[in-house]
């Protein structure tokens, strides 16, 4: 396989990483809200959060992407394919991240929270200094795993017309009749990207307060 073909795969890989990173960050912001609703004492909020999570965990991502891609124009919202793809990936990963965060926040010892309340800490201080650090430390490995899953799942966004790594590999394999070399190269690029994510996740996790180094 020529260097030119490999460069085209690398350019598509950058597109894949960009879509995945933006989706993961948006999804994390949504997940914080959804997890807070899950833990809310207001039953209506908790019910809405459970419906959100059940839908996006229960429906295949491929169907979600096609649904969002066709639904937005139907209600008068015309957006580029990449925006529809990011919306789909963000909502899907938000559902999984929200469950991870809920588990983390639920694992915060109640005694720590009660002690903080007794010394006069405000709810915001308790969240920032006690709940958030402990929950993040407990859920970080799961969040890194979710990031890797989204990177691989981003190959599905080609169904809405986004030319990412897998779609580029398919196009090049069809035009050059070198499917083995092309897909082996694409697989190697995915492997390297995910290895870097796992390595970076491990380094960040060890830098978190309270984690043995």
Automatic annotation (TrEMBL):
InterPro entries cross-referenced by the UniProt entry: AA_ABC_transptr_permease_3TM, ArtM/GltK/GlnP/TcyL/YhdX-like, MetI-like, MetI-like_sf
Pfam families in the record: BPD_transp_1
Subcellular location: Cell inner membrane; Cell membrane
Regions crossing the membrane: 12-39, 51-69, 75-96, 183-204
Domain ABC transmembrane type-1, chain residue ranges per copy: 9-201
Membrane topology: Multi-pass membrane protein
Main location: membrane
Keywords: Amino-acid transport, Cell membrane, Membrane, Plasmid, Transmembrane, Transmembrane helix, Transport
GO molecular function: transmembrane transporter activity
Keyword Chloroplast part of the UniProt annotation: no
Database matches in NCBIfam families: HEQRo_perm_3TM
Family of this protein: Belongs to the binding-protein-dependent transport system permease family. HisMQ subfamily.
The protein, known as: Amino acid ABC transporter
Organism, as annotated: Rhizobium leguminosarum
């Amino acid at each position: 396989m020529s260097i030119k073909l490999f460069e085209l795969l690398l350019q598509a890989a950058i597109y894949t990483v960009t879509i995945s990173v933006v989706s993961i960050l948006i999804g994390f912001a949504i997940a914080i809200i959804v997890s807070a609703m899950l833990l809310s004492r207001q039953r209506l909020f908790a019910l809405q959060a459970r419906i959100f999570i059940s839908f996006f965990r229960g429906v295949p991502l491929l169907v979600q992407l096609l649904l969002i891609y066709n639904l937005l124009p139907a209600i008068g919202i015309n957006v580029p394919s990449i925006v529809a793809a990011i919306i789909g990936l963000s909502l899907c990963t938000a559902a999984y991240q929200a469950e991870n965060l809920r588990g983390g926040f639920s694992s915060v010892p109640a005694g720590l929270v009660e002690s903080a309340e007794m010394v006069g800490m405000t709810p915001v201080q308790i969240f920032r200094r006690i709940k958030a650090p402990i929950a993040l430390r407990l859920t970080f490995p799961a969040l890194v795993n979710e990031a890797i899953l989204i990177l691989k799942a981003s190959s599905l966004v080609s169904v809405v017309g986004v030319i990412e790594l897998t779609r580029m590999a398919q196009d090049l394999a069809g035009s050059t009749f070198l499917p083995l070399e092309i897909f082996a190269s694409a697989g190697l690029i995915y492997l390297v990207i995910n290895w870097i994510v796992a390595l970076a996740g491990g380094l960040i996790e060890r830098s978190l307060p309270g984690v043995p180094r």
